[in-house]
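Dear colleague,

Following up on Tuesday's group meeting, I ran the structure prediction for the two-component complex that the binding team flagged. I've pasted the input sequences exactly as they went in, so you can double-check that nothing got truncated or mislabelled along the way. The structure tokens for the whole assembly follow below. Feel free to forward this to whoever is handling the docking comparison.

Inputs:
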Amino acid sequence: GNSVTQMEGPVTLSEEAFLTINCTYTATGYPSLFWYVQYPGEGLQLLLKATKADDKGSNKGFEATYRKETTSFHLEKGSVQVSDSAVYFCALSPSYGGSQGNLIFGKGTKLSVKP
Amino acid sequence: DTGVSQDPRHKITKRGQNVTFRCDPISEHNRLYWYRQTLGQGPEFLTYFQNEAQLEKSRLLSDRFSAERPKGSFSTLEIQRTEQGDSAMYLCASSPRYYGELFFGEGSRLTVL
């Protein structure tokens, strides 16, 4: 079946540190991949997405590349800020066998950035 | 710019009672989704509507759960005879026609005592 595995948190970093949050997936066919972010007290927001192999999604300094050969979609940011403190969810949308937009989420990784 | 709104934000109820949650999607979005999120887990898909038609239901949606979207606008999620295991955050999301991007509300937290 379809599933997403992401690194367990919490992750604590100092401001301006480099961030990597690992995400791997299992899916048949060619899923679309997403990173969603949930800031304290807010709803989930789409951070970035990639719809096919080798696509790079980017937003707000975050990047992730769809790697089909390693079934991975790792999230990276070169220099984190305190305002990036949030829970990050990796998700996939199956290419077939279910509704479009039926997202399968990982468990989430909590990031805390210290000044 | 109004986003997805959910009501109530928090509901505390006793086991065996019925509860209903409401979701108002972004007005031009024709797809509406319900997800459930328990502590330490990612959201899990429950059901989805395209306009007023309920097109898919997860196996997580037992017969005590029912969702409606009359007239293709707001949606309600009702849980009958609540159990302690129903305690969770219930998330609503809507999307426009294109593939995959969901806009989430802040959720309705259910606590069953």
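The mean pLDDT of chain A is 91.

Cheers,
M.
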